[in-house]
Structure formats: structure tokens, C-alpha cells
Structure prediction request, 280 residues.
Amino acid sequence: MKVYFIGAGPGDPQLITLKGFNIMKGTKICMYAGSLVNKEILQYLPEDAETYDTASMTLEDMEEVYVSAKDKNLDLARLHTGDLSIYSAIGEQIEILKNAVRGNTLAHAYLFTGITGIGKLTSARALAKILHCTNTPDDFCDHCIPCKQITSDTHPDTLVIKPEGDTIKINQIRNMQEQIVYTVYEGTNKIVIVDKADRMTIQSANCLLKTLEEPPPHTILALLTAIPYRIPSTIRSRCQRLMFQPLAESLIVELLQEKLGGEVPADIQLIASLAEGSIG
Prediction:
């Protein structure tokens, strides 16, 4: 079973991508937000496909649909705008990570690079979800308990390190090293996400280097940065790099519309162009 997030805005249903169209043609179960997605898009589904309007469903209802799809080994399409739209922007990177999980070729450390506000942290959390989701093996549903815990940074095997003040301090790295030596609480891996890794002090970076030189077999590190040259080369060389491109203006408009609700400024297109590819 696989879950596909397909961008399908509230406008012309023909705006759906060719890839999204081809996925829908073979999908037997589809979830969509009726108040946001143009229902004409549903015509692309097979006649016998099951459809669910998430606007009238509880989280428990949605989870039941995922479990049903898993039991029947059927792929599920999730039509979306708004908060899930970022997945359509980073779909290529997430697919790379999914394939690495499926092929058992995950690197022990990744370096996610790209400007601020383009989905690096979302992708790192997605990797953790792929490894811990209880509904969709080698994928993620965003609705099971582990997925929701990872979103809120409360999952016991997912550690997120962020700068305390202006820097990431050596004590933060040492605390992480103490935690990853323990047995995995759930699943098979611990995930360490270091956000704004370029903010590490020299002492912090040297401390992290020891973990990269002798990585625990059950731990995966994801270092996120908009300024990779500020991370020592000894660390960069030990990470597999995954690059993120600036977001398209059309996607920034969609994300802004969802965040602002009904209070959308008339010059939203100008605002999107001035964002220079970032929603951060």
C-alpha cells in the first residue's frame, strides 16, 4: 500500500499534474477536502473508487480509512491544498528517501541544503514518519499515533535539536549522544534532526563529528542548513547531500491563501514573487 499526496487546488480541475492524473486513474481509495478541492477532479478516479470527504470526518474516521486501505493492500490518494501542499513541493526528495528505505540503502547521515522555508524540516520529519508509520510500510499516513507524535516533536525515537539562543551548544550534542545509545523504543531506528546545523559552535561540531565517525547502527542523522559552507568540511564529507530548490510562486500563493483564510490581500501574487521561493 502507498499513500499519494496530490496537489489539487480549488480552481480549474485541469490544473492537476499529469503525474497526479495517472496516479488517480489507478487509485481505488481517495480522500479529499470538499470545501477546498474542486470535486470535478474526482472524475479522474475509477468508477468503483471509494471517496471520502475529510471535512466531515474525525481523525479517528480518517485513520480507519488508512487501516482499511492497508488491509486491502490498496493505494490511497490524498487530494489536498493548504498544509499538505508543501508535500507536493518536496515530493522528489521524499520519494528519494522512501526508495532508500525500501531498498535498505539509507545513509547514516544526511545533509539537507537549501534556503530557509522550503521544506527541509518537513522532509526530515517525513523520513522519521516513513520509518515509524504504523499504517503504511515504507510510506507515511500523517494520521497514526507515531506520525502525529513526530509532527509535534514528541516521538520517543525522534530527536530534534534546534539552536538555543544563537547557537547549538555542546551540551545539546552530548545529551543527544547519551540518548542514542539506548535501545530503540519503537520501530527499528532513532532519528536525530539537527535544524540550522550551521549554528553549531566549533565545540559542538567537533563533538558531533565523533558520532559521524562511529555512528550507532540504529541511528540516522539529518542535518539541515541554508548555509552549508558554515558546516565544517569534515562533517559535510560524511553526509549524503539532498538539495532543495526554492518553491514555485504558484505554490507560495496557495500556501499563503490557506494560512490567511478569507483575509487574502489583493497583491498576494506580488507578495509571493517577493518571497524569493521561501515560505519561511
